[in-house]
Amino acid sequence: MKKKFLLLILAMSLMFGAVTACANDPADYLVPETKQTDTTEDTKATDPTAAVTEDSTTTQSTQTTTLPPTTTTTSTEQRIEDPEDVEGNPTFNQGVMIMNDRIMELFGLNETGISNYSARINKLRDNLPASVTLYSMIVPTSGEFYTPADYHTGSHSQRTAIEMIYGGLKDGVVAVNAYDEMLQHYDEYVYFKTDHHWTGLGAYYGYVAFCKDSGQEALPLSEYEEYDLGEFYGYLYSYGEGKAAILPDNVTVYRPKNYDAAAWVYPDSVKTGGYQMHLLATTWNPDSNEKYMAFSGGDAPLMQITSGVKNGKKILVIKDSYAKAFLPHLANNYEYVYEIDPRHFQGSIPQFVSSEGIQEVLVTNYALATANPTWTAGFDRAIQP
To answer: Is the C-alpha dihedral spanning 361, 365, 371, 377 positive or negative?
Structure first.
């Protein structure tokens, strides 16, 4: 009876919360969005049921919609419909769950935050030229797949939250069903166990999901080579209790066999004073715990990838740190890939899209970052014409 009472209190608390969010790469992961619209100080959650409140952005009514169907290639004939109910006794520390051999952030569904995020994407749609195709892709976290049912259903369901966000989008926005692709592969090594990011393999499946819903062919994984960069402990490891039970993660980079792409990072949209950035590094300092940066470096205001695919196609990705492992794959399909992080970019995204002749724009976040106050404030500022 005592256990049921505690679970009831936990569920009621999260019904009025939102989500913890990652702010920067590789740290500052547990950052709430506050009700103030000006710059706020980042704070860490101190209670395992802690969540975040949304800001005062004008809200719109939301409706639940079913995620767009996708045809998924899996390693088995049996299609996975729902994640399993993982058994174990979780413990909590400052807003994260320690469960078996994983450390995971908690998620709580908040309708105000959901409505505000949909409204932001819709406003960007209004401010872009009608000829530009706009995509929205929200990636679920490991907490959706490796926790007891109480922590990925009901008010904790990331699938429900993503469906609600997509249900609030205008007809002119294409929803990308990354959730289903991750679900079909969650029994593989697609999420780190000591870090909130997906692995190189998980990011590849995110690329597959995007190609499916954008009508393109993804480069088959058989056309990639694997590079083992060794072990590392992610940032969430510092929140783990009984750390001896949590084994280190391992970083594997999947790089196309004939990869022809180069990247440059710039401080602003003028694209001056830039420096070259690696993509899908094949070697890394074996003692480093920042191996996630091997995919395409750290977060920056603007990055441009130029590939050997001479098709004239240009896409802009507005992102959080999850996209760092995802971005390099787009060079298989686009001649130019631009990346903007609203936390650091000071220009106007609509103006940049027009000046560069960009035909497609993708906004992508991991589920817990949709209410990050630093990211949303930067996004609101950058999408102005």
So the answer is: negative
Determine the distance from the C-alpha atom of residue 377 to the mean position of all C-alpha atoms in its chain, rounded to a whole number: 17
Asked if residue 26 has a cis previous peptide bond (ω within 30° of 0), the answer is yes
Closest CA relative to residue 145, chosen from 103, 80, 86: 86
Cβ atoms of residues 101 and 245 within 8 Å: yes
Asked if residues 60 and 120 have their Cβ atoms less than 8 Å apart, the reply is no
Q: What is each CA distance from 85 to 9, 150, 302, 310, in whole angstroms?
A: 21, 9, 41, 47
Q: Can you say whether residue 150 is alpha, beta or left, with left for phi > 0 and alpha for psi between -120 and 50 degrees? A: alpha
Q: Is the pLDDT of residue 18 over 50?
A: no
Rounded to an integer, the average pLDDT of 282-286 is 96
Give Dmax (Cα) for the chain.
Answer: 65
What is the pLDDT confidence band of residue 219, given thresholds at 50, 70 and 90?
very high
**Distance between CA atoms of residues 196 and 24, nearest Å:** 12
Residues 200, 205, 209, 210: what is their CA dihedral angle, to the nearest 10 degrees? 20
Task: Classify residue 212 by burial, with Cβ atoms within 10 Å: 0-12, 13-18, 19+.
Answer: buried
Helix then strand count (H, E) for the chain reads 8, 13
pLDDT tens for 313-358 read 999 999 999 999 999 999 999 999 999 999 999 999 999 999 999 9
299 neighbors 305 (Cβ within 8 angstroms): no
List helix spans (H) across 157-312.
158-167, 178-185, 200-213
- Where do the H-state alpha helices sit in the chain? 2-15, 111-127, 158-167, 178-185, 200-213, 323-326, 349-356, 373-382
Using CA atoms, how far residue 352 sits from 265, 269, 270, 271, 278, in Å, is 15, 7, 9, 11, 23
Nearest to 353 by CA among 319, 324, 320, 382: 382
Q: Per DSSP, what are the bridge partners of residue 187?
A: none
